[in-house]
# Entry
Amino acid sequence: MVKISVSVLSKNDHETIDKLNKTDIDFFHIDVMDGKFVNKTNFSIPKIKEVHELAEKNLDVHLMVENPGNYIDQLYFPKIEYITIHYETLNNDLTLFEKIKSNGIKCGLSVKPSTDIRDIFYLLDNLDLVLVMSVEPGYGGQSFIESSFDKVRLLKEEIIKRNLKTIISIDGGINSTNAKSCIEAGCDMLVSGTYIINSDDLKVTIDSLKKV
Ligand code: DX5
Ligand code: ZN
# Structure
């Protein structure tokens, strides 16, 4: 079944994390922003530590930062399962993947909407996860970019052709109207923020993404 990673960018207080702990979600998605790669700044390391302590699910950390290398060593907490960095900040420095893995954490690579997904195919052997951005990185609450489906399909085809175990996650504007198509296109994980966080009934909302 598809995994759900809830983005707690807009709301991450004790009560929210507690409520989400009691649901069927699989991960907490943590959006780290440095004010350079994207305009906003968010999720300092102490804040991640705080959420980590409250979380009863593993963390899926999305580094929207210019220099991911500066963060990886500080993100060494047991419940961090994935660290995802951006292809656009990689500068072909494959040691970043090694750095993540040497801490026993799974390694993800994210692509912005304007990046051709085929550009990352040569890196797939190194990756546990590819995060397809279905909105411009930087803000929650934006509308899903429809061309993301084609990207996911192309990527899935390549993963299958090469018999890889890399999973596909998608991030931005995910809700019940596009979840089914994302899964059909090949997504293994859906990141959803606004749609889940703003709902009155977490269980019904999460089920509407999972059980489509
Ligand atoms: C956008 C972030 C997303 C965002 C998703 O830059 O990477 O994780 O919080 O939020 P929604 O679901 O509101 O688009
Ligand atoms: Zn994200």
About this structure: The CA atoms of residues 90 and 96 lie 8 Å apart. The domain at 3-210 is CATH 3.20.20.70 (TIM Barrel). The chain has a mean pLDDT of 97. Strands lie at 3-7, 27-34, 41-42, 58-64, 80-86, 106-111, 129-133, 167-171, 189-192.
